[in-house]
Amino acid sequence: MLAFVDHSSDLNAWAQSLSISREAVEIYAASDVIDLHIDSFIWTRILGYDLKQRHGHGLLGARFYSQVDLPRLREARVTGGIWVITTNPIRPGLSRAHAFTENFAHLTQILESCRDDVAVVRNASEYRAARAAGKHGAFIGVQGGNAVDAAVDRLNDTIVRVTLVHLSNSRLGTTSAPGGGDGGLTAAGRDYVRALNAKKIFVDLAHINRRGFFDALEVSDRSQPVIVTHTGVSGVHRHWRNLDDEQLRAIADTGGTIGVMYHSQFLDGSLLGCTADKVVDHLAHVVETVGEDFASLGSDWDGAIVTPRDMPTCLELPRLVQRMLDRGWKADRIHKILGGNWLRTLAALRP
C-alpha cells in the first residue's frame, strides 16, 4: 500500500494546516475531486520519476515538476484523474506508434501495481466502483493524436480522451502555439475525429488553433460531448493558449466540460507564480459565460508549469475551495466543479 496521511480522521487539523475553514475541507472531502490532465508520467519517462514514491518540491521548488505523485494524490484525496501519455513529435511515425504502445504498457503497469490504492478505470461506472472502494480512479489519456497517426485502432478502450494536437503541427492539424499558423484541421484530422467518435473516445480540443477547433466541432458526432481538458480563458487573460467566449459556448453546446489549468503564465501572465484566486477567476468566467455545469479542474500538474504560489502541489488543493467560498459560491457549485461536471460528461459518453 502507498504511505500517506488520511486527513479524514481529523478535518479540523487538516483545515488548520492549510489555514482554511473547516467548511472548506468538509465540502472538499465530500466531493469527487477529479483532475482532467495530470502530466507526471512524462518525468517518469525522462528522469525515472517514481510515481509511487512520495517526493518533495524537487530541485526547482515544485516549479515545472514534482507537483504530484501517487502518495500525495491519495493524501490530497484526489479521487480521480486523467493520466496523460504525451507524444514526442520528433519521433518518426512508426517509431511514435511503437513508443506509444510501450508507454501505455509502462503507465498501466505502474498504476495497476498499486491495486490497494488505485484502479485503472474507463467509464463512469468503473470510476464509481473505485470511489466506493476508497481508491483513486485513474483514467488514461493521450496528448498529441499523432502518437498513432491514422492507426486509431492502436487506441484501446482504456484511452478515455485524445488531444488532437499538442505544441507542434502534425498531419492532423495546427497547434495554437506561436508559429503554428492558421491551417486548421487537415482531412486526416477530420477522419481522426470521426474515428475517435466511433470508438467513444473523447475529442479533446486543448492546444488546437481556433480554426482547427471549429473544424473539429463541424465533423464531430453531435450526439457526443467534446471537451477541453486544460486551458485558460481569454475573458480573464488573453493568451494564445486560452479559449475565447465563443469557444466556451461551443463546448457547452455539446454537453462537454472545460478544465481550467494552473499554469500562472496562462492565468495572468506572471512568471514566478500567481495565486489560487486566479484559477477561480478563470473558473468564474466559465460559469458566468456558459453556466456552472461546464467548468472543471484540469491542472496540467507536472506539465512544466509554474503553479500558484499558494497552491504549489496537489496537497494544497483544498485552498481552492476556500477561495470559492470567499466569493459566496455554494457547496453544490463547488461539488460540480471539483468533479461532478466531468462525471456528467463522462456518463453521457461512457456510462
Can you walk me through this structure?
With 351 residues, the protein is an alpha/beta fold. It contains 13 helices and nine strands. It is globular, with a radius of gyration of 19 Å. The model has no long low-confidence stretch (mean pLDDT 97).
Would you spell out the secondary-structure blueprint of this structure?
Elements: H1 11-18, H2 22-29, E1 34-38, H3 41-47, H4 70-75, E2 80-86, H5 93-112, E3 118-120, H6 124-132, E4 136-143, E5 159-163, H7 187-199, E6 202-204, H8 210-219, E7 228-231, H9 245-254, E8 258-260, H10 264-267, H11 276-290, E9 295-297, H12 318-326, H13 331-349
Parallel strand pairs: 1-2, 2-4, 3-4, 4-5, 5-6, 7-8, 8-9
Mean pLDDT over the residues: 97
Largest sheet: 6 strands, parallel
Q: Cα-atom Rg, whole angstroms?
A: 19 Å
Count of distinct structural domains: 1
Give the end-to-end Cα distance, rounded to a whole number of Å. Answer: 29 Å
Structural class, please? alpha/beta
Strand content: 5-15%
At the first level of CATH, what is the class? Answer: Alpha Beta
GO molecular function: metallodipeptidase activity
Protein name: Microsomal dipeptidase
InterPro entries: Metal_Hydrolase (IPR032466), Pept_M19 (IPR008257)
Organism: Labilithrix luteola
Task: Supply the key terms.
single chain, about 350 residues, alpha/beta, TIM Barrel, 6-stranded parallel sheet, 3-stranded parallel sheet, 13 helices, globular, Microsomal dipeptidase, metallodipeptidase activity, Metal_Hydrolase
